[in-house]
Every structure is written in structure tokens, then in C-alpha cells.
Design brief:
With 148 residues, this protein is mainly α. Helices cover 37% and strands 5% of the residues. A three-stranded parallel beta sheet has the order 1-2-3, with helices on both faces. Strand 2 (56-58), helix 2 and strand 3 form a beta-alpha-beta unit. The longest helix is centred in the last third of the chain and has 21 residues, at 117-137. The radius of gyration is 17 Å and the shape is flat.
């Protein structure tokens, strides 16, 4: 499960960091606790146990101050990643942060908020690498063999 949410909450009229951490944490906990038994028990790991879920939490990309969606770039820049990190760390969930490659000045934002095709491709590549890394590190079924 890949979760990268919060940008729509980053508006001055809506933003409440403490509430966001609680609500986001509740969502992440529910996603992390979903087991395949709830899906009729069809998914099984190699040892016959119900398959576990890997929840990977992403920090949303930056927003440009000139975006026309009412999203506050300052909240997205500092408070949102802090809140996402707080919620994920309370549940010990792995994270990824695309901000090193998806910057406002990198032409990866089409309208100051949404990713271009190139930005989406960069994000997909990063998420793929993060998923493989986490699945391998935690021995998830289907993960490539670890070379330690």
C-alpha cells in the first residue's frame, strides 16, 4: 500500500497539524492492519500464513506559491512533511521523500501543484525502488532475494 496524502489539507482555512497527525495515523493504522483474511483469505505467503501488508508512506511533493488551487506552499513545505513523518514514525512505517528530485523549479509540476508526466515517471521510479528495498529488508513474499 502506498500512501501519499495531505496536500488538499494544506490550506490555511483547513490546516490543523495535530488533528492531521491523529487522522492520518488512524488511516495508516487501518491500512497496516488489513490482512488478507478480510479478503476471503485468498492471499497467502509462502509459509501459508495470511499475507502481510507493506505500507509505504510518502511525503507529498512541494507546491508552488503561485498554484491556483488555494494550497498554502508554506504549509506544504514545512508543516505537512513534519505531520506525515510524525504519523508514520508513531507506527514505525517506512517512508520515502520525493522532494530531492521533484522540486518546484524542476519542471515536474504542471500547474504549481500536480505532477507532469515526467514528474510522475520520476515519482514512480522512486516508489518502485523504495518498495523493493523495504520488501527485501523485511522479507515480504515476492521480494527479490537479499544479498547480505
Amino acid at each position: 500500500v502506498i500512501v501519499m496524502l495531505g496536500t488538499n489539507d494544506a490550506r490555511l482555512a483547513f490546516w490543523d497539524e495535530d488533528s492531521f497527525v491523529v487522522e492520518y495515523g488512524t488511516l495508516l493504522r487501518r491500512l497496516a492492519n488489513i490482512r488478507s483474511e478480510e479478503n476471503g483469505g485468498r492471499e497467502r505467503s509462502q509459509d501459508g500464513q495470511a499475507a502481510r501488508r507493506l505500507v509505504l508512506v510518502g511525503v507529498p511533493p512541494l507546491a508552488a506559491s503561485w498554484n491556483s488551487w488555494g494550497v498554502n506552499a508554506e504549509i506544504v513545505s514545512a508543516a505537512l512533511p513534519r505531520a506525515v513523518s510524525n504519523a508514520a514514525s508513531k507506527l514505525n512505517l517506512p517512508m520515502f521523500n520525493p522532494r530531492g528530485i521533484l522540486t518546484v523549479s524542476s519542471n515536474h509540476l504542471s500547474d504549481g501543484l500536480h505532477l507532469t508526466g515526467g514528474g510522475s515517471a520520476e515519482l514512480a521510479s522512486m516508489v518502485c525502488d523504495a518498495l523493493i528495498s523495504e520488501a527485501t529488508a523485511h522479507s515480504f513474499p515476492g521480494a527479490p532475494p537479499s544479498h547480505t
